[in-house]
Design goal:
Layout (H helix, E strand, L loop, with lengths): L3 H17 L14 H13 L4 H8 L3 H13 L3 E5 L7 E5 L1 H22 L4 H22 L10 E5 L5 H17 L3 H15 L8 E7 L2 E9 L7 E9 L8 H16 L3 E7 L3 H9 L3 E8 L6 E9 L3
Parallel strand pairs: 6-7
Antiparallel strand pairs: 1-2, 3-4, 4-5, 5-6, 7-9, 8-9
Helix pairs in contact: 2-5, 3-4, 7-8
């Protein structure tokens, strides 16, 4: 663990950098745009074209916020939509000629800002700053992705049936939804019944389950049911984490496995059903390209709930 004084020094320097670079202002880099919009333009220039889902994952913002920002940039003539090279049903965003000109001005402004700050330092100090910033930025990125620090390195993700998994997954669902939604035995029993039926079909190559294991105990799960919906649609089911491993990146590891499996199998879409209010899970779903496609009021669990359906178009 780094020394507390070192942590304080880095936090203090970070706050000063945020102020001095202008991120506390409503606009950035001598433009009329917010910091997130400026960052978006730069990333699209760097990548050539990007989808809204990719920007949601990169920026770490809510899908609705990114959608509003992109709509403003399109309306301002900075961006335009084109069909994706991978799937014509999906849209990507590219810079217009006006957008290219805006980015040139942003780059010139930012380069001048950095050059002016570095002019008073010798070449050794300049190189130290460049290396230090690159290393710190990389460490922050890995931390955000759940790959370092306390990201539960002792948790192993495995695939396939494990003895006790049906009861344990039902238990995690029952405990979580009883605590947060007051669901009772009907919900837990339905989870156990559905999972038991699915376990009998795991020999089919279109079906798979992944389990997060810590010290021999199941602490998370997700499954892909390739037969339940038909029409070459996959059903993402039983995505749950034990309270003790939320925020460790384990959920992202499980979804990575599930989505890679779906893409390899060539499913047309991946569907999932959930409830409103699970904001952290929703952000994670959207970072993998899921979009909310349906929302309705239902009382199948004994109380009125806002139920939701999310869909992800396959990569094939």
């Amino acid at each position: 663990m780094p020394h507390p004084s070192l942590i304080d020094d880095i936090r203090s320097s970070s706050r000063r950098m945020v102020r001095e670079l202008g991120f506390m202002d409503s606009t950035l880099a001598a433009t009329a745009y917010s910091p997130s919009a400026v960052h978006t333009l730069l990333e699209i220039e760097n990548n050539g074209a990007m989808s809204a889902a990719e920007l949601v994952q990169l920026l770490g913002l809510e899908k609705s916020s990114v959608s509003r920002m992109l709509a403003k940039l399109v309306a301002a003539g900075e961006l335009y939509e084109v069909p994706s090279d991978r799937d014509g049903r999906l849209k990507q965003l590219k810079l217009t000629p006006a957008g290219i000109d805006t980015v040139k001005k942003i780059n010139a402004y930012a380069a001048g800002q950095v050059a002016e700050a570095l002019n008073g330092l010798d070449s050794t100090a300049q190189q130290e700053i460049a290396r230090g910033l690159a290393g710190y930025a990389g460490a922050l990125e890995q931390c955000r992705k759940g790959n370092v620090g306390d990201a539960a390195p002792d948790i192993e993700v495995v695939s396939g049936y494990r003895a006790g998994m049906i009861g344990r997954i039902a238990q995690m669902h029952g405990e979580y939804y009883a605590t947060h939604y007051n669901f009772g035995h009907v919900f837990e029993a339905k989870v156990a019944t559905g999972l038991a039926e699915f376990a009998g079909r795991l020999h089919e190559e279109c079906n798979q389950i992944w389990l997060a294991i810590r010290n021999g105990n199941i602490v998370g799960s997700v499954a892909i049911d390739g037969q339940d919906l038909g029409n070459n649609d996959a059903h993402l089911r039983w995505f749950i984490l034990d309270e003790g491993c939320r925020g460790t990146g384990t959920g992202k590891r499980l979804l990575n496995e599930a989505i890679a499996f779906c893409d390899a199998q060539g499913f047309s879409t991946v569907q999932l059903w959930t409830f409103s209010g699970l904001n952290a899970a929703r952000r994670l779903y959207e970072s993998f390209g899921f979009m909310l496609t349906k929302e309705w009021q239902g009382d199948q669990w004994g109380m009125m709930m806002t139920e939701q359906q999310f869909s992800r178009v396959g990569a094939g």
